Amino acid sequence: MRGERPQGALLRERTLTSVFWILAVNVARAGLLFLVPWAVAWLGGPTEMGLAQLAWGVYAVALPVVSLGTRAAVLQRQELSQSYLSSVFVVNLAMGALTGAVLALGAPWIAGIGDGDPRLVAVLRWMGAVCFVFSLTVVQSSLLARRLEFRFLSLANLAGAVGGGAAAAVAALLGARAGAVGAGVAGYLVVSTTLLWIAGRWRPTLTFVPAEAMSAVRFGVTASLASFAFNLSMQLERFLFSALFGQAALGLYGAARNVNRDTLRNLMKVSDDVLMPGLSALQSDLAGARRYYLKAMRYEFLAFAPVALFMAVFARDIVLLVYGPEWLEVVPLVQVLTPLVLFTITRHTVGAVFLSQGRPDVQLRWSLLMVVFVAVYTLAGAPWGLFGAVTSISTLEGVGWVVSHRMANRLLELPFRRFLSNLGTPLAAALLFGAGLYLLKGVTGAGAAGPSWPALAAWAAGAVPLYAGVVHLLDAELSRSFWRTLADVLRSAAAGRGRAT
């Protein structure tokens, strides 16, 4: 079986179509991952929210163990065979069963991070079964991503998001508030996995070749360790907050993350999913890879930075509308997380650079550094309480951002000055937009009589031309290019391009 790799114009067409479909599925996924914690917050309180955050943190750390980095191995390998894919499938299946068993049997011990709460024990055991289901999806989704056939992948995930939302709602209504996260993930995976296997063009055989399995594992295990370390760095703050400030404080932080950081991060998965196969297809063309990467970074910052600034300006309105007045402590946390969200817009893409260039060892070193950085950030601000720790994480992340991009840029032979200049106009546009929006909100007295969804929607609609005008004023050619590309994405999707050949 020959692994098809899109090149040239075909790569651009499939990338444009992929962006549309991945954006669609990640909007649905972000909605699901926003609504589940929201339901927990309304039906429970900060303590239940904290338990849900801990459960999600354990699950996120477990996923790289299940996949063992084989997704990256399938994407990066030049040629594929049926025996290679079947061998990888067996490896994932075994790791899914092992991880599930560890979570099920070790749940009482692992739940010590939440003071041994029996509700967390039950959720962790449920997550063990979910990990096994996830192992069935690794090869199928990797092959679709490799061919940039994100239309099929996205439709399966969209249906999964609907199923997951329904499962989470049922769990919450039945009183399993902390368990709503686990039920949502389970519903999502069961539905999406079923559809992937129905629509997929590949089936495993009984073939298992130890040498080919080891080939994937040798590449993948380093990538897996890197993903494990990176996910641990992302979840470590949750575990530390629970230990330092208690589960209720973690619940407040989780609610703040849910408003801007986690929601936007899920939308940013567009780059995660497209950049890895796209840059892998350009391994032999380093100049082309640099251009591809720089344009992706510039457009992504143009798209997401103004959303982060809008959420900061209207944080109080959003928190009151989403959570209610009992959660007003969340407002300053949302606002102080804004720098971290801006750093994340580009920093999350460096993993795709490491793996596409066949350097999981560099990704591992970077991920281990992130674990150390997050621990230092959190502990540095801990003496000033929850707000101090969140402020420390958000602002000191600038150090990690510089280190991350220097490591990635070195592999692409991309000067750091050129990388920074590429983001100069989008950053200036976002900051000017945020300042203008803040002044307009103050002058008009918006929200003084109490927030409302129609008023917030009106501000959001008005913010679009305001931001577009700022970008055009700073760089008219960049503005035209960005909107042309967006139009191309919609046209490509409407024409059905990028489908499997």
Q: Mean of the pLDDT scores?
A: 82
The proportion of strand residues reads under 5%
Task: Specify the structural class.
Answer: mainly alpha
Number of helices: 22
Low-pLDDT segments, ≥5 res:
1-8, 497-501
**Based on CA inertia axes, which overall geometry fits?**
globular
In angstroms, what separates the terminal alpha carbons? 14 Å
Write the layout of secondary structure elements.
Layout: H1 8-43, H2 46-67, H3 70-76, H4 82-110, H5 118-135, H6 138-146, H7 150-173, H8 180-199, H9 210-245, H10 247-259, H11 261-267, H12 269-281, H13 286-313, H14 315-322, H15 330-336, H16 338-347, H17 350-356, H18 360-381, H19 385-411, H20 416-444, H21 453-474, H22 476-495
In short:
Helix content is 83%, strand content 0%.
